[in-house]
Amino acid sequence: MDIVLDTSSIINLINGSVFDRVLTMNGYRFFIGDQLFNKEVLDEVQKIIVEALIAKNKIVLLKSAVTASIIAELRVKYRLGLGETECMALCKICNKAICTDDFKARRFSVIELGESQVFGSLSLLKESVNIGTLSCLEVLTSYMLMIEKGAFLPKGLTDDYFCH
């Protein structure tokens, strides 16, 4: 499955100290839009991490084929930020799934892409346990780190959510 990552999911997975491991899940390829990467707010350390993963071919930098009119149409329709809108539009045009931790962007991405094409970082953590990339303990630790570092994710999830 091809998944385009937005900034919120990238930041949360980096903060959870599992970003590079999640990117190695068998059967998945991960992308980031070039416009998103150049314009969205990543701090210097996060940018260095993403650039290193691009250099190692763990993330593919996807040349944006999104026109300004498509972005404008979706922004007006859903009132999302530029980054979330561009990521959704890119997925729609390139027939890829989206991974976003922005609640509003997830809800509207389901409308535009279909429920099976919308993920969040927690979905990726859950899948990484299912296919054996990460252990249940690693995922729980990662989730707690994300919450500690300010992620807007559901609180109080246990191993029942991730590991069964």
In the predicted model, the low-confidence regions spanning at least 5 consecutive residues are: none
The helicity comes to 55-70%
Q: Which structural class do you get from the secondary structure elements?
A: alpha/beta
H/E series? EHHEHHEHHEHEHHH
Strand order of the largest sheet: 3-2-1-4-5
Strand content: 5-15%
Radius of gyration: 15 Å
| Termini gap | 22 Å
Bulk shape: globular
Count helical runs. Answer: 10
Q: What is the typical, i.e. mean, pLDDT?
A: 90
Largest beta-sheet characterization: 5 strands, parallel
Number of strands: 5
Describe this structure in words.
There is one protein chain. The protein has 164 residues and is α/β, with parallel strands linked by helices. The protein is 57% helix and 10% strand. It has ten helices and five strands, in the order E-H-H-E-H-H-E-H-H-E-H-E-H-H-H. The chain has helices at residues 7-15, 19-22, 34-39, 44-55, 68-78, 82-94, 103-113, 121-130, 136-148, 159-163, and strands at residues 2-5, 29-33, 60-62, 97-99, 118-119. A five-stranded parallel sheet has the order 3-2-1-4-5. Strand 4, helix 7 and strand 5 (118-119) form a beta-alpha-beta unit. It is globular. The model has no long low-confidence stretch (mean pLDDT 90).
What does the secondary structure layout of this molecule look like, with pairings?
Blueprint: E1 2-5, H1 7-15, H2 19-22, E2 29-33, H3 34-39, H4 44-55, E3 60-62, H5 68-78, H6 82-94, E4 97-99, H7 103-113, E5 118-119, H8 121-130, H9 136-148, H10 159-163
Parallel strand pairs: 1-2, 1-4, 2-3, 4-5
Helix pairs in contact: 5-6, 6-7
